[in-house]
Design a protein that fits this description.
Blueprint (H helix, E strand, L loop, with lengths): L2 E6 L6 H7 L1 E4 L2 E4 L2 E4 L8 H9 L4 E4 L3 H12 L4 E6 L7 H12 L8 E5 L5 H15 L4 H11 L3 E7 L3 H5 L5 H9 L2 E7 L5 E8 L1 H15 L10 E5 L3 H14 L8 E3 L2 H7 L3 E7 L9
Parallel strand pairs: 1-2, 1-6, 6-7, 11-12
Antiparallel strand pairs: 3-4, 3-5, 8-9, 8-13, 9-10, 11-13
Length: 296
């Protein structure tokens, strides 16, 4: 029996990229200046339009998928006659995995002969993208849903997340950076370097002075942690919040340092995560055998 791999819109890939991988997706929700939207991977609102609101100082907020929405979404997938493996945004960032699990439990009696597995990815943004790409590849190789479910639980921490921001405005709004630290950071061009920890939580690692140095630090971390070091030949994705030139700078560094890496897709950070980062964030994702050495 065939099966469906599914995830949520915080995967921060394009709709076309997910369709190519045959990955289904359900949208989170976000609010801009009091108006509610569904995060549909920039189908109804472009990244340019969204970040235009952000640059104007828009008030933003987000909400996860409700249990009822998950029930309706999963039911539709199960009615197609397939089992489902759903990959959630990290529990260290959102409670969405709890809602997905609650929905799956509610559907057990209705679909006793179907499998509906929920996985806490411990990933975010295009880190989920790397993860579901790997899962899609495993499925294409013939791995059954039970084996892939176990593989997903065993290997989610292998996806490394390293990111930085050159604009702390929305980090200050969200309380992730104090106002005083944000002002000082702006004056002295101090940019935070962060990662996602083994527990799937955002973790500040260092404060780096100047944009060029912090962007270079992303490539340094890949050189330090990527499987095989400079001989790395696995997946590498970059996402950014309205700072394409910075993302391209990092991609150029990757191509120079990792001769076996031939492709580095660049994606826009989606509306859900973008509401919290604002502009100026660049994130780098790749795989590692280190399982996230978040203190280094």
């Amino acid at each position: 029996m065939s099966y469906i791999i599914s995830t949520c819109s915080t995967v921060d890939m394009t709709k076309e990229a997910l369709e190519k991988l045959d990955i289904r997706c359900i949208g989170f929700h976000f609010v801009v200046n009091g108006k509610s939207y569904t995060d549909d991977l920039y189908t109804s609102m472009s990244a340019k339009e969204f970040y235009g609101y952000i640059r104007e100082g828009a008030d933003t907020s987000t909400s996860q998928v409700s249990v009822g929405e998950y029930v309706d979404y999963f039911r539709e997938l199960l009615l197609e006659g397939n089992d489902v493996l759903h990959i959630c945004l990290s529990s260290g960032i959102s409670n969405t995995v709890q809602s997905a699990n609650a929905a799956a439990k509610m559907l057990q009696a209705e679909f006793p002969n179907r499998k509906l597995y929920i996985v806490d990815s411990l990933c975010a943004s295009a880190g989920i993208g790397v993860f579901v790409t790997l899962l899609s590849q495993k499925r294409a190789e013939g791995m059954d849903i039970d084996s892939l479910y176990q593989w997903a639980k065993d290997n989610c921490r292998s996806v490394q997340h390293w990111f930085c921001s050159t604009d702390l405005t929305y980090y200050i709004k969200g309380g992730r950076v104090s106002k005083v630290s944000g002002v000082i950071g702006g004056i002295f061009e101090i940019c935070p370097l962060l990662c996602v920890s083994p527990e799937g939580k955002l973790k500040p690692i260092a404060k780096v002075r100047t944009k060029k140095k912090v962007l270079t630090a992303l490539a340094d971390k890949m050189e330090q942690h990527a499987e095989g070091g400079n001989n790395y030949n696995g997946l590498c994705y970059i996402s950014h919040s309205d700072c394409l030139e910075d993302a391209e700078f990092v991609r150029d560094l990757i191509f120079k340092r990792f001769r076996h890496v031939k492709e580095v897709p660049i994606f826009d950070i989606g509306t859900t995560i973008g509401c919290h980062t604002g502009t100026g964030t660049v994130a780098l994702f790749f795989t590692s055998t280190d399982e996230r050495e978040d203190s280094k």
